[in-house]
Structures are given as structure tokens and as C-alpha cells.
Amino acid sequence: MPKKRDGGGLPKTQQAAKFLGVSVLAGAVLAGLALPAAGALGLTAKGSVEGFDDIPANLKTPPLSQRTRILDAKGGEIAKVYSRDRTVVDLKDMSPYIQKAIVAIEDARFYQHGAVDVKGILRALNKNAQSGAVSQGASTLTQQYVKNVFIEEAGDDPDKVAQATQQTLGRKVKELKYAIQVEKELGKRKILQNYLNITFFGQQAYGIEAAAQRYFSKHAKDLNLGESALLAGIVQSPSRYDPVNDPQEATRRRNTVLQRMADMKDVTQAEADAAAKKPIKLAVSRPKNGCITATHGAGFFCDYIRTVFLRDKSFGKSRKIRLQRWNEGGMTIRTTLDPQTQQSVQASLKNHVYADDPVASAATIVEPGTGKILGMGQSRPYGFRENETVINLSVNHDMGGGAGYLPGSTFKPVVAAAALEQGTNPEQEYPSPYRMPYPSPVQTCDGEWRGSGSENVENENKEEVGPYAMKEATAKSVNTYFVQLISDIGVCPVVNMAQKMGIERADGKALQQVPSMTLGTQEMSPLTMAAGYAAFAGGGRYCSPVAIESITDARGRALKVPQSSCRTAMSKKTADTINTLLKGVVEDGTGKEAGLKGRDSAGKTGTTDSRYAAWFVGYTPNAAGAVWVGDPQHKRKMYDITIGGVPHDKVYGADTPGPIWRDAMSGALADRPAPTLPTVAIDDPAKDKAQGDEGDKGRGKNKPGRGGHHKPGGGWHIPGFPDILGGGNGGW
Predict the structure, then answer these.
(1) With contact defined as beta carbons under 8 Å apart, do 616 and 604 qualify?
(2) What is the pTM of this model?
(3) Which of 539-548, 627-636, 710-719 is least confident?
(4) Strand runs (DSSP E) across 582-663, as ranges?
(5) Omega into 441 within 30° of 0, i.e. cis?
(6) So what's the pLDDT on residue 684?
């Protein structure tokens, strides 16, 4: 937290130090120290003060930290984020009253003296000597400005803040020399402008514009006499004179400022008296800082923007530089977030999964062909209270997410795409019994995977018994079909296809090269899956997710922003074939409950062992989305569970994630074009068999493999396995 000035008096040790500082400065000034040509001080113990001429000549003035606005794709504000709530404005945009009030109460001789007010020092020295304590300071407005620059440069580092505010003669001398420089280079009006923009007014408000907004919900240029006097009075001790928490003390201080303005002839006595009789009327605007204030549930997306900024070298070579730039703020960041899509995503999640449910849900929608993130939300709100979280369940761990979630059968289309790219015909059949051991050995990128002989795989239902070809196996999500498929083509083509589609583990580790990967046994995030499926919708072209459209800095200059990286992940024919397969899922397969009305869609359900996670990932030509439902802690199995008020014996990808996806996509695409998905014709192998076809009809280009062949008598043979008899009942 930024360091605030306290409201009480100084401790005796600090009073003594300040008294000594005023005394020494008085002597130094009288001795001509105010001239830059002066030599070493030698006024205190050896080494306690630098030689005056040894102090660097130029004061480093870091850019003032300001608020940054994060906007959606239409220009609507998502959130304001800032290290310090400040909006820098010109002097012409500050009320003349506040300009006169701050000078009157902080440095009445501001326009008469130079960097150091000799008369003021002598007056303070005399007053303090009489009282034996520090009752008056000697710093000019220029010196106060320099001190605030030191504090601004320290940022939120408590050690640096302590150094910038320590009551030592060495710091006072530095402050003095830089004040001389500032007076020479800037002039009075610029110093006053800078001071009013940098100083702290309490209630997290830095600078007069933020203060006017915080206390009166108006611009600094619109402050009246009484309001200006109140704000000017706060500066000396923001906590003591806080009008929100102590209106009586703030009123007394305001009236002191008003009288000082009258004494200075800035206003008439009558004007000051009239203003003093009026009670303080605040119109407090509470601080709205950070992603926790984001609209339409976009807090997680807002946090993702910050993570992108801090990780991308477009914004600085090192993280330290990027963090400094982020904290300086003053930027306007226009993002890819589509407000219609975001509202639809959040409404669907809220309707289907309650914040206090034992499980959570996350959903992300991206645009095929561009990688733009259009919507991102989750059922548990962004925050720190019960049933809230700041972990972004939609993204990978290194981007602010968790460890990811098993995608289950939503990974099967990746295997199908890899097989099609290898030349496999979509009419390829496998016997696909209800239960079978994993084939072994299976080729990987690094050699062979060999099973122990005890690894078995089974389908969801005992009625799911082949033979099946690829379309029906995809529609019914037949596990034993896809285990045979990946064993036939090898694991390596699947790993390569996943990499081309940007599908990676959420924990950043390499994909394990095992046949079980076809069943989605490695944790992934919704954003990863949505962007990967967008390649199917995009004719085989994958585009990495991107969240930022443009950024302008505090001066209105455009910054370079990261761009989506697009590449060909698969042929258009393969993508169109996958479209055909996945349209079957939503038309008459496991994903019927997710189908969209009046527009082409395709997708895949996914449910993991023990029901720790359930998914639906799908797309149209203009949007691809992924929905996950489960326990982020991977502890709650989704059996005998109520989600969103709906009881479930056990959760499927179709009955919970599917409807969330359907409603989110329906709202996102309402009143928008409904192009069709390009598909291919896939023959029905059953008709071919009816015409007397035998053998490995579906194997593309007659390539050898573990596809199996039809045995006389209706059985099936898989090389390396016992015969599967009576192909209709799945028995061994």
C-alpha cells in the first residue's frame, strides 16, 4: 500500500531532527548555500551529509503513476486499475480557488521567494526556538514538490519510502539543491501544476483531479471556494483532516484555510466567512481499483490482461521494466472482449451453476481465424470472500490459472485429426468391444510404449459394442475405438497435432506420450481447448489466443501490442472432415443437448473417470467455446450432486457443460450471421458390407496397421490379442 502521512504530531526524536535541520538550513542559507556554487557543508558529523556539489545536478522525475482504463472491444469500460489513483491535468483544468488555497496554506510567499524562503526559515527557526519543539516547518512548495518526487520514485517499496521521507539533514540538503534546479527550469506555474498533480489528498486519491472526484464526484476545474479550502487543508495531514472520518476536524481546518486566503487577499473576508458558515457537503465516490470492480464478471479477463502485460516483452525487456510501466499506468487498453459475448457467457454460467455449489464452472469463447478472446467467465465471482476466487479457472497456471483439468473425450478429435492427416480413411472400422486391454507396443516420438498387460479400457455403456467407423465412434464417444486408433497411427502424430493446435498441458509440462492420452488424461484449460477447436472452424488454421487490441499511453502514443500467431495445423480437408464428425455429435450423438437452433454447430462432450470433470467444447464458423464443470481442488466426484438447483445421479458432459455452452453461444451469436460449416461426405461402411465388401475396407491407402480384419463367422481379430467372437456382444 502507498505510504500515507500520519495524522498525529512528530515523535520527539523527529522533532529534534527537524529542529536541527531547520537550524542548519538557516545557517547554510545565510552563508550563501542557496547558490549552486557553494562548497561542502561540513556542518555535522563526518559523513552525515554529502558535499553540496557532489549531489547529482538533475532531479529524476519519474512519470506520475496514474490510473489505467481497460476497455472492451466496443470501448466500454471494464475496470480501472492503478498503483495510485491519479489523473494528471493541466493548471487550466484546476479551479483558481484550489490554486490560491494551496499556496495560501502551504507557502504564502510562494511567488515572492526562490527555491528557499529565507524569511520563512528564520521565522520558523524563531518560532520553534521559542516553543522548544517544531511548530512550524520551513519547506517551500517547491521543496515539498521535490520531496513528493522522491516518494513517487520510491513507489510502493516500504524501504525506499522510508528513505525518501526520513528526517535527516542529508535528505534536506538534497531536497534544497533539487529545489534550486526545479525553480530554475520549471517556473512557478509549472511547479504549482506539478505539485497539485503529485501530492496525496487521502482516501487513496493522488493529485487534485482524483481528490475532487473522490470527495465531491466532480472535476478539479469545478471546485468551489469551500471545497477547494477543504482539499487544500487535507494535504498537511490526510488522516487527521479526513472529512469522511472526522468532519469536525476537517471543518476547522477548512476554515483555517479560508481565513488564510482572506488574509492573503485571495478572497474577501465576506466570501471567506460565508464559505465557513456552510457545512461540508461531500459526494464521496468510493475507490474503484482493480479487477475486483470489473463489469459483467470480467474480473478474470481483466487479471489476464495484467498477466499478459507483465509477461510479454513487447512492453519491456525485463519483468521489472514491465511492472514499472504497469504501475505508472495512465494507459488506455482496448481489449478483444466482446460485451455481448461476455454478458452471455456470464449469464449462462450464473443460470446453470451457482456460486455456492460444491463444484464450479468456467467458460471461454474465442474467434476462429484471429485468436481473439471474446468472452471469459466462471461461476465463482472474482474476489476474496467465501465462494469467490482470484484463480482464473479458464487459463494455464503460468497465466494465473490452476493446474488444469482432465479434458476427457474432448481430446478425441485431436486424435482423429492426427489420424486423418496420416492418411486414415474416416470409414476405418475397429471392432470396439465394451472392454479391452491397451494394445502394446505403441510407437511414440522417442521409441515404443509397452504396457504391463494389466491396463484396460472400457466404454461408458456396455451396449457400446462395435464394429464402429470414425463418425459413429465419435458421435457415441467410443473409448475402445479411439484407443485402437491411436495405437494404430502411433502417439507421435497425436503429440505433433496437439502442438500445432496449441493444445498443451495447463501446468506447462510436456505431453506424456502414452496411448491413454486419447481419452484426455492430461490436464488442460478451457482457453487452450477453445483455441484448439477454433482451428477446426478456421479451415485447419490455428491462431494463438490474443486479448489486447491496442494500448495508448498517458500521452496518447500507441504502444506495440502482442499479435496472434497463426499457422496451419492441418489441411482444410481434415478440418472439414472433423466438422462432419463433430456435427454428428450435436445432431444425434452425446452432445444433442448442446446443439444450437438455426445455425451450424459442432462439438464434443467429455467426462473423466470418477466424474471429477465434465466438458463441452464446440464451435460455429464464427466462435469456438469451451465449458468445464468440476471441483477446482479435484476432490469432489460429481455423483449424487445438485448443480444450479438440478439434481444429478452422475454428471455428463452433455447434461451440464453442454447446456451452458448452448446458452452462452446462443446469446453471443444472437442477431449475427449464421454461416455454414464446410463438411465432407463420409460413406456408411455398413452399406458397403451389405454389398459384400470384406476386409479392412476403411484403411486409407491400404496401409498396414492394427485395424484388424473381419474373420469368417463374424468374429474380429486384432494382432496381438485374443479373438473377439460374436462381434455383436463385445465378449472375449
Answers:
(1) yes
(2) 0.76
(3) 710-719
(4) 602-607, 613-620, 623-630, 639-643, 646-650
(5) yes
(6) 58
> Which has the minimum average pLDDT: 215-219, 410-414, 545-549, 728-732?
728-732
Averaged over 342-354, what is the pLDDT? Answer: 97
Instruction: Kindly state the cell numbers that stand for 97.
Output: 480557488
Distance CA 694, CA 705 (A): 16
DSSP code, position 315:
G
Give the pLDDT confidence of 598-655 residue by residue, as tens digits: 899 999 999 988 899 999 999 999 999 999 999 988 889 999 999 999 999 999 888 9
Residue with cell 484396460: 456
Helices then strands, each counted (H, E), the chain? 22, 20
The three three-digit cell numbers of residue 476, written as one number:
457415441
Determine whether 295 is exposed, middle or buried from the number of CB atoms within 10 Å of its CB (0-12, 13-18, 19+).
middle
Residue 40 has pLDDT above 70, yes or no: no
Burial of 509 (0-12, 13-18, 19+ CB in 10 A): exposed
Q: Is the per-residue pLDDT at 405 higher than 60?
A: yes
Q: Which of 221, 161, 400, 440 is nearest to 301 (CA)?
A: 400
Which SS3 state, helix, strand or coil, does residue 302 take?
Answer: helix
In order, the DSSP letters of 681-708 are ----HHHHHHTT--SSTTSGGG--STT-
Q: Is residue 698 within 8 Å of residue 683, measured between CB atoms?
A: no
Alpha carbon 477 to its chain centroid, in Å, reads: 35
Pairing of strands 541-543, 716-717: unpaired
Q: What stretch of H or E contains 306?
A: helix 299-311
Strands laid side by side in the 623-630 sheet: 373-378, 360-366, 623-630, 613-620, 602-607
Q: Please return the burial class of 560, using the count of CB atoms within 10 Å of its CB with bins 0-12, 13-18 and 19+.
A: exposed
Q: Which residues of 139-166 are buried (b: 16+ CB within 10 A; e: fewer)?
A: bbbbbbbbbbbbbbebbeeeeebeebee
**Which of residues 592 and 249 earns the better pLDDT score?**
249
pLDDT at 202 exceeding the cut of 60:
yes
Query: What is the rounded CA–CA span in Å between residue 556 and residue 418?
Result: 47
Residue 588, pLDDT score: 75
CA distance 239 to 244: 10
Cα(131)–Cα(627) distance, integer angstroms: 72
Give the other-Cβ count within 10 Å of 90's Cβ.
9
Q: Cell 468510493 appears where?
A: 286
Using CA atoms, how far residue 505 sits from 4, 509, 524, in Å, is 44, 6, 5
Task: Please give the DSSP secondary-structure letter assigned to residue 138.
Answer: -
* Averaged pLDDT, 527-535: 98
CA distance 705 to 615: 31
412-421 and 526-537 helices, crossing angle to 10°? 40
- How many CB atoms within 10 Å of residue 277? 9
Asked if 206 and 148 touch (Cβ cutoff 8 Å), the reply is: no
Q: How far apart are CA 732 and CA 724, in angstroms?
A: 5
Chain segment 257-314, per-residue pLDDT in tens: 999 999 999 999 999 999 999 999 999 987 778 888 898 999 999 999 999 999 999 8
Mean of pLDDT over the chain: 83
Residue 450, classed as helix, strand or coil, is: coil
Is the per-residue pLDDT at 728 higher than 70? no
